[in-house]
Specification:
Layout lengths: L2 E11 L2 E6 L7 E4 L1 E4 L6 H13 L3 E16 L2 E14 L9 E6 L2 E9 L9 E3 L4 H6 L11 H8 L2
Parallel strand pairs: 1-6, 3-9
Antiparallel strand pairs: 1-2, 1-4, 2-3, 2-8, 5-6, 7-8
Keywords: Hydrolase
InterPro entries: NUDIX_hydrolase-like_dom_sf (IPR015797), NUDIX_hydrolase_dom (IPR000086)
GO molecular function: hydrolase activity
Length: 160
């Protein structure tokens, strides 16, 4: 398996966040923010905007990078290694916050996206939030500024 870079989107509504819900497996339901692979030559911010539009047909605004998770994991007997750019954003339309469930699509696979209270993942044997470390990132009171430099932005600046 090769390295993979992903952009994932955190959208908040009160104490809840919008998450893709995976089918139950061994008594555990896994949840993950909307998002996906950053395409070659694409920056992570553009990717999170594109992925939200492609997967759930909703426009997001004001994406802000809140962290990066280097996620090393085992999946079906293989080692996986992802760099997950975690963005917090808002829906462009307030009415989208009223939806209790949103239908999503990834390629030819349908899925649902639901609002899930972040506290449901605290020491839970029933629910799992991925990537690993995301719960800790979202609930940590220790915040730090993230410096995000994209050479794509630097090249655009030099061209002006």
């Amino acid at each position: 398996m090769q390295y993979r870079a992903c952009s994932l989107c955190i959208i908040k509504k009160g104490e809840s966040i919008l998450l893709e819900q995976f089918p139950e497996e061994d008594g555990i339901i896994t949840f993950r923010p909307v998002g996906g692979t950053i395409e070659y030559g694409e920056d992570s911010k553009s990717a999170v905007i594109r992925e939200a539009k492609e997967e759930i047909s909703i426009d997001i605004i004001e994406p802000k990078l809140i962290g990066i998770i280097e996620h090393i994991f085992h999946c079906y007997g293989e080692l996986g290694h992802e760099f997950d750019f975690i963005y917090e954003a808002k829906f462009s339309l307030m009415e989208d916050y009223n939806k209790s469930e949103i239908k999503g699509i990834e390629g030819n696979k349908n899925f649902i996206v639901v609002w899930k209270n972040i506290n449901d993942f605290e020491e839970s044997n029933r629910y799992k939030l991925v990537p690993d470390g995301l719960y800790e990132m979202l609930t940590s009171r220790n915040t730090s500024d993230i410096k995000h430099i994209s050479t794509k932005d630097l090249l655009a600046f030099e061209g002006t």
